[in-house]
Every structure is written in C-alpha cells, then in structure tokens.
C-alpha cells in the first residue's frame, strides 16, 4: 500500500465517527476504488461485488473523476478504515516495516471463519453493520478472545 494510502487508512481508523461522517458527506472520489484494488491485490470486479457497488456506474464515475454517492462512499471508507485498523494493530504488536496491511486484509477477507458460521468476512463488507462485525472480530483476535 502506498505510504499516503496507509496514512489515510490509519487516520480513518483513528477518526471519530463525526469526522468520518463529515468526510463521507463532503465527497469521496471514485478513484479511491482504484487505489484499493491495487493495494489489496484484488480485481475491481471482486472489490465492487464485495462492497455491493454497481460496476457500470462506478467505472463511469472513475473515468469522469466523479465522487461516490454517500452510501457508496460509506462502504469504501469503512473498508479503508478496516485496513487502518490492521496497520495500527501491527504497529502495536511489532515491526510493521515490511507488512502489507491492505494485501493482508484482501486475503483475510476471503477466509471462511468459524466465528461467522463458516462465512467469509468479505460477505459482510457490503453493510456498515457487517463491517463493524468484522472489525470486532479483529479486536477479539488481537486480544486472544475467540468466539
């Protein structure tokens, strides 16, 4: 993940809910999806499917340099926030120099988890409630608490 993208992800994780709402309302460029695709090492179609974003309109917004709709931006910011959470967790736990947080998230989201009834975390990324659930699981993993 590019250093400026990691800084953004960390700042989103550390931001207050009010700050994130303000950011989302002020507009999130569709180009952030391109950055996520590259950083997470996933296809655009896979990422759009995971976030339940319409492929055709998103491609058009990216080409036009347009902003995402509020509900679309919320899901993208939520995923970036999750990457920021991993960055912070790794920094707190050891040496993050060579760790690829976004790539790790891209892989981890595809692993079936017993705590999710065998579902993959990616299956929960299309809603804010699902993203909160996934974030809570990561906190439990870091704390050594397994459900």
Q: How would you describe the overall organization of this protein?
A:
By secondary structure, the protein is mostly helical. The chain has one domain. It is built from eight helices and no strands. The model has no long low-confidence stretch (mean pLDDT 94).
Mind sketching the topology for me?
Blueprint lengths: L2 H12 L2 H10 L4 H10 L3 H7 L4 H10 L5 H24 L7 H8 L19 H16 L4
Salient structural properties:
single chain; 66% helix; 147 residues; mainly alpha
Short overview:
The chain is mainly alpha-helical and 147 residues long.
Helix content: 55-70%
Based on secondary structure, the structural category is mainly alpha
Distance between the termini: 31 Å
The major beta sheet can be summarized as: none
What is the total domain count? 1
Quaternary class? single chain
Total number of beta strands = 0
Q: How much of the polypeptide forms β-strand, as a percent range? A: under 5%
What is the residue-averaged pLDDT?
94
Task: Name the poorly predicted regions.
Answer: none
Write down the Rg.
15 Å
The ordered string of helix (H) and strand (E) elements is HHHHHHHH
Tell me the overall shape: globular
Please report the number of helical segments: 8
């Amino acid at each position: 993940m590019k250093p400026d993208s990691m800084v953004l992800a960390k700042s989103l994780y550390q931001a207050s809910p009010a700050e994130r709402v303000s950011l989302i309302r002020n507009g999130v460029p569709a180009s952030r999806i391109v950055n996520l695709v590259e950083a997470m090492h996933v296809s655009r179609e896979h990422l759009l499917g995971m976030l339940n974003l319409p492929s055709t309109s998103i491609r058009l917004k990216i080409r036009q340099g347009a902003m995402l709709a509020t509900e679309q931006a919320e899901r993208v910011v939520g995923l970036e926030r999750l990457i920021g959470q991993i960055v912070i967790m790794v920094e707190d736990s050891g040496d993050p120099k060579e760790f690829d947080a976004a790539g790790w998230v891209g892989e981890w989201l595809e692993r079936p988890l017993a705590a999710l009834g065998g579902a993959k975390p990616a299956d929960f990324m299309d809603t804010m409630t699902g993203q909160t659930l996934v974030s809570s699981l990561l906190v439990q993993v870091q704390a050594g608490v397994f459900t």
